[in-house]
Amino acid sequence: MARVAEKVSTVCPVARSLDIVGDRWTVLVLREMYMGASRFEELQIQTEATPQMLAGRLKALEADGMVERHPYSEKPLRYEYRLTEKARAFYPVIYALRQWGETWCKDASEGVAVGFVHRECGHDVGLGNVCPNCGVPVEREDLEATLSSRYKREREERRAAFKGK
Questions:
Q1: CATH code (residue 25)
Q2: How many domains does the chain have?
Q3: pLDDT tens by residue, 80-99
Q4: Above 60 in pLDDT, residue 3?
Q5: When you count CB atoms within 10 A of the terminal residue's CB, does the N or C end of the chain come out lower?
Q6: What keyword terms does UniProt attach to this protein (predicted)?
Q7: Three-state SS letters, the chain
């Protein structure tokens, strides 16, 4: 992964963006952080990344200004990771991947993994980024997420398997 400070060989914004977020693990780390995870162990459990892989992605995201480390424990020294404004601005890309994946990568019988309700009016926004009830464009902070029972169970099973190791 190229760092922002490094000289890049193209002016293409897509290529430059992929230098930062262009691999599976980085996108999954960001997904988990958008879902509220901030600590290494929870990020590792839900992404299923190895500790080395996760540490590398977090360091790269920090170097690229996408996350900031903040200590939450002095002894032993432990950090949590928080999204920066730059990372929060990336959320529409994750939301678009969700929409595309729900439409093209799943069987309809599986149902939607994460439902979003517009906090302001209380209506489901479906897969779009505009509330169909009130017509307002929505961002992550405008939405209340609800995991399907299947997705919630999948996440709980990962956590239980990790704790059992």
A1: 1.10.10.10
A2: 2
A3: 999 999 999 999 999 999 99
A4: no
A5: C
A6: DNA-binding, Transcription, Transcription regulation
A7: CCCCCCCCCCCCHHHHHHHHHCCHHHHHHHHHHHCCCCEHHHHHHHHCCCHHHHHHHHHHHHHCCCEEEEEEECCCCEEEEEECHHHHHHHHHHHHHHHHHHHHCCCHHHCCCEEEEECCCCCECCCCCECCCCCCECCHHHEEEEECHHHHHHHHHHHHHHHCC
